[in-house]
Specification:
242 residues; alpha+beta
């Protein structure tokens, strides 16, 4: 059995519209690059690279949330608003105000899967690594739990789901529904080590992950359409109020 290792990388401050590929290559020590590794990158770096910032002055935040979300579900508690954005159930459409250099709103990446694929291609070309995964991470709250946990925004270079259906449990009974969400599991581990405040570790190298590296990383194996999701009655109750 492999041993999972997550090494957070402390970096300098990344600035708006910087070259993200060059930043990563300059900040990750050369001896950290190896075959069968997954690089975790906070999605905020991609947002900054894309210039996805908006000055707060004169902005109606509720209207901005509605504009940035794919589906706006409505207001929740504590002044938060529930949305479906980029295939995820997110508060405030993923708009962030923490660790913003000038106090601007930091919006979610425009096209996370396109960004992560470009980044992976560039890193493979420059490092010579064949089996390299790239994982964009963020943090979100979980119902009925205090605190936030890391989650996968987008991934490339490995399969997000390990299908265990048909395998036997320890008593020989066939599993009927079990699929392991490895992308979110790795994101949670990475964010735990990267931190949430002033750690200044927006990158992490993951080695020993029991994932299948792959040239194709279909997002469809991870994401579920809203109407097919087991929690759809909850979403529908929000939509029915509109």
């Amino acid at each position: 059995m492999s041993s999972l290792k997550v090494t957070a990388i402390r970096t300098r401050i990344f600035h708006r519209e910087e070259n993200l590929l060059e930043f990563i290559l300059s900040q990750v020590p050369s001896d950290h690059w190896q075959e069968d590794a997954v690089l975790a990158v906070t999605s905020k770096l991609v947002s900054l690279h894309e210039g996805r910032l908006l000055a707060r002055s004169g902005v109606d935040k509720i209207e901005l949330i509605k504009k940035e979300s794919d589906v706006y579900l409505g207001e929740m508690a504590y002044g938060c608003h529930l949305t479906i954005t980029k295939g995820q159930l997110l508060a405030t459409a993923g708009i962030d105000e923490s660790n913003s250099e000038n106090g601007d709103y930091i919006l979610y990446p425009h096209a996370p899967y396109d960004s992560v694929e470009r980044l992976r291609n560039g890193l493979r070309e420059r490092t010579g690594i064949k089996n390299l995964g790239v994982l964009l991470t963020d943090s979100h709250s979980v119902p009925l739990r205090h605190g936030v946990v890391g989650s996968c925004v987008a991934f490339a270079g490995f399969r997000a789901i390990k299908n265990r259906i048909g395998e036997n449990d320890i008593f020989g009974r066939a599993l009927k529904m079990t699929k392991q969400n490895q992308a979110d599991a790795l994101a949670a581990a990475a964010v735990l080590m990267m931190g949430e405040a002033a750690e200044q570790c927006p990158l992490a190298i993951i080695t020993g992950a029991p994932v299948e590296f792959s040239e194709k990383s279909p997002r469809e194996e991870l994401e579920v359409a809203m109407t097919d999701d087991m929690y759809y009655p909850l979403y529908k109750s929000f939509l029915d109020k509109e």
